[in-house]
Hints:
This protein is α/β, with parallel strands linked by helices. It has helices spanning 8-19, 30-43, 45-56, 69-78, 81-99, 138-151, 170-179, 189-198, 215-224, 249-260, 275-291, 295-305, 314-324, 336-340, 358-362, 398-414, 418-425; strands spanning 3-5, 106-109, 115-122, 125-129, 155-159, 183-185, 208-210, 229-230, 238-243, 267-272, 306-310, 328-332, 348-351, 388-395.
Amino acid sequence: MRIVELTGETKKNILNDLLKRSPNNYGEYEETVNGIIEQVKERGDEAVFSFTKQFDRCDLTPENLVVTRDEIEEAYRTLDDALIRTMRKSAENIGTYHEKQVRQSFFTTKPDGSILGQRITPLKRAGVYVPGGKAAYPSSVLMNVVPAKVAGVEEIIMTTPPGKDGKVNPGTLVAADIAGVDRIYKVGGAQAIAAMAFGTESIPKVDKITGPGNIFVALAKKAVFGYVSIDSVAGPSEILVLADETANPRYVAADLLSQAEHDELASAILITDSMELAKRVSDEAEVFAKKLSREEIIRKSLEQYGYILVAKDMDEAVEAANDIASEHMEILTKDPFQTMTKVKNAGAIFLGEYSSEPLGDYFAGPNHILPTNGTAKFFSPLSVDDFIKKTSIISYSREALERDHEDIERFAKSEGLTAHANSVAVRFE
């Protein structure tokens, strides 16, 4: 891995490089995606089936569109029993964590008879997109579906692309069944997003779409935002490790490569105040890369977006980490909890040498659907809050309104909205 001295200029250049990975910079695909969306809006199932034939080489009909119970049972028989048990444990951990996020409606009353409150209600229908093929991640199924179930969403549907044989990844099916998905449709790509956003003869319109996907899926989610809600327009995976001279270079290197193996656009960054650690991590990364199964992807990722930044001290390192606002951040310092108090921007923070990033990906419980491309400065992980909506409740008595009506009328008139003012004034003529 390249070792770079951390300066204002190098930090600026790295931030610019990382932003190039954002789906917002792939405008050349937008016309194609928008065309697919328009076709699905106009032609419904016919367009969905046509695009599935074109892109997935699979013939779909209304009869084979939905995954059957027999197909799910077949998927269970395909998987190792130990893996199924692990998925169940993971789902339980995710559920336990997200149950603590559940909000309650509230009402406050005053002696004058006014009542103010907030009512919490779950979304009626949520749609989860799950990639297929080599990019199928059953862990993401659990992370998307379990919070929706905890929130009380009435119906959860899932779309995922089929193989040429019309079958769906068995791990995806088992995870969906464990998490409690109501219906699974064999549709992928931008056409699946459009189908969930606008509805077709066979696929119902949803209120919110969540889940990762390729650039076409990401751009489709961006395009339908406003017709439905979405979780985010996710970019490639990221990890940033903050480490001092006490860190184990072998652990640091292993953790950096755990994200670099996702794809060529993944980012893996170490920021440290120790040049010795920097050199040793670079050496260890080379050793690991040679024996890992996705060596080619790892090397391309590190070549393009892998950095070891050497800062003059840990305060400068933390400042740079806050500017980068990484999806995943590991803190491997002498006192990681103290270092954490200075960190403002990160999707998820992993503290200490036994809290490596895959713990969050698979098992601990906090959600692994996280903000990317610097959006951790203003976005949060997927949570129960993403599957509820809040409604304000307002009830005033005559006594309460009489006390405030002149203020309300004055404010409305100052904005030139005399009908607003009259709506209140008429009650006290």
